[in-house]
Design goal:
The chain is α+β, with helices and mostly antiparallel strands. The protein has helices at residues 2-18, 26-42, 216-223, 274-281, 288-305, 359-367; strands spanning 22-23, 45-55, 58-69, 72-77, 86-90, 93-97, 103-105, 124-129, 132-133, 136-144, 152-158, 164-170, 176-186, 202-203, 211-213, 238-246, 251-258, 263-270, 331-334, 340-346, 349-355. The strands form 2 sheets. Strands 1, 2, 3, 4, 5, 6, 7, 8, 9, 10, 11, 12, 13 and 14 form a 14-stranded antiparallel beta sheet that branches. It has a 7-stranded antiparallel beta sheet with strand order 15-16-17-18-21-20-19. Strand 10 (136-144) and strand 11 form a beta hairpin. The N and C termini lie far apart (62 Å). The relative contact order is 0.12. Mean pLDDT is 77; it is low at 4-18 and 303-338.
Length: 381
Amino acid sequence: MYRRTALLLAVLATCTIFGCGRRLTPEQSREVLMGVRQARQRATLEGKVAISIRVRDKLVKAEADIKRAPGIVHLQYESGRFANWKIIEQNGMVWRVGPDGKPQTWEYGVEPGGGGLPMRPNLKVIRTGGGRVAGRQVDSYKVEAPDGGRARVEIAVDRETHYPLRLSRYDARGQLVSESIYESVNYSATAPKPLPVPKVATERRHDGGMRRSVGEQDLVKILGGPLLKPGYVPEGFQLRGMFRHDTPRRTLAEMRYSDGLRSLSIVQVKRPSAEERRKWQQGQTGGQWEQRRQQWQEGQEKRQEGQRNGGFWQRFSGRQQGERAAGRGQGMWRSGLRGHVVRERRGDRMVIVTGDLEPPQLQKVMDSIPFPAGSKPTLRF
């Protein structure tokens, strides 16, 4: 009894001193997150980092050596699928170098999940304690959405430098999606030297696939009519951009929303005519069709190599698990890394709603999307 009481008192004393479970004020939250962001931008260091990525419900792990300086990151995998591969990021350009020393195209950045931190002012930042990572004293924080869902980012911040020595991301189901943990770090290391930028280098992307940022009028032209915009999005979500995605058969239009931690995408595509479907089925893929097919083929290898980053196309490549709503019949399934997907027909369009939200919320967004002018609701499938 005495030991149990002493242990309880010790825990209470520790939490009192270090602020376990204490939610920060908005000003304190901004200060912590901004300090972490600035430390990542300004740090010069080298170290060893353990990386975990969830791919199709399985955690894939690897170890890597990392060297950083302002505007430069060199990452070399020492184990795992990409052992002996190097990823170079330099002033916004990124490429990879194979074991043979030849540079290759790479679009996904150096760190898992893009490596960025949420910065929306309405996010909940909770101090969860202290500890040590890579031999350094750290302060640990949990960043949550305003509604307290299970999606979150957990960080362990070097108490002296404010650099994040552990960064873990969890999806709406509470599953670990990606994680990087430093096993050792040296802030006195010499900065990596800038390298000649090869022709194959590309501008760093935070998402996979053949995606381009465009304006609303571009999407209107692609769809042949106005965008079908939702009348409802969850509290805290705001429109972050509009994009086009080119596939072999057609072009998809995407509106992307975020609350700073979770993503929500509304994708629309004009359904092909009977003649277009017939041509495709018969393999009459000349001209524009052949050009798109070649573009798709070229991008396929990149997407396969970049699966660890949980890009756009992975949200549609997950294995269907038969989660269909009784009596409604709309397509709904868990995707590989990015939560659920709901899709329904809206007149001459297919509309897809996907994101780090649970099905009832996605369905509520879908139900708020109007039908095109002149069309009526049909049987959902």
